[in-house]
Design a protein that fits this description.
Elements: H1 2-17, E1 19-23, E2 27-32, E3 35-36, E4 43-46, E5 49-64, E6 67-72, E7 76-82, E8 86-91, H2 98-106, E9 111-114, E10 123-126, H3 127-134
Parallel strand pairs: 1-8
Antiparallel strand pairs: 1-4, 2-3, 2-5, 5-6, 5-7, 7-10, 8-9
Pfam families: DUF2057
Family: Belongs to the UPF0319 family.
Organism: Ferrimonas sediminum
């Protein structure tokens, strides 16, 4: 009986501290805190605390009824602190032309907002930037 109460209390506390990340049309999350995310979901449950989101700009551009192409950015690492129970919204602009889509893929612009639609402080770095930070400066010998 005590075990059942403990499980119920834990489940209730987890559901009270759970947050939801809503993804915009042009946002593709690959992983959260190192755990893979299924392709093309539009909401993800988060827990309170630091979040490391592997994300890319990903848009299906239709030139006409018979031709379309995916325009994608390289992977980026978005980091922020989930403060408590609530919703977050991660969005990226929608291009009007393929040229604009390619520009956005080369320099993605993600916005992160809370449930009041206020901007949430976050950092965003491409995987290339992160890799270059890990490289030793100059010859170490």
């Amino acid at each position: 009986m005590k075990a059942l109460l403990l499980i119920a209390a834990t489940t209730l506390s987890l559901s009270l501290s759970a947050e939801t990340l809503h993804l915009g049309d042009n946002v593709r999350v690959i992983a959260i805190n190192g755990k893979p995310v299924p392709a093309y979901v539009d909401t993800i449950t988060l827990t309170k605390g630091p979040q490391q989101i592997t994300v890319r700009y990903d848009v299906l551009f239709e030139a006409d009824a018979d031709s379309h192409a995916f325009i994608r950015s390289e992977l980026h690492q978005l980091q922020f602190e989930a403060k408590g129970s609530g919703d977050y919204y991660l969005n990226a602009p929608t291009p009007l032309t393929a040229k604009e889509g390619k520009m956005l893929a080369n320099q993605p612009q993600f916005t992160l907002q809370d449930q009041s639609r206020q901007s949430v402080n976050h950092s965003l770095k491409s995987h290339t930037e992160l890799f270059n930070q890990m490289q030793p400066a100059g010859n170490q010998f």
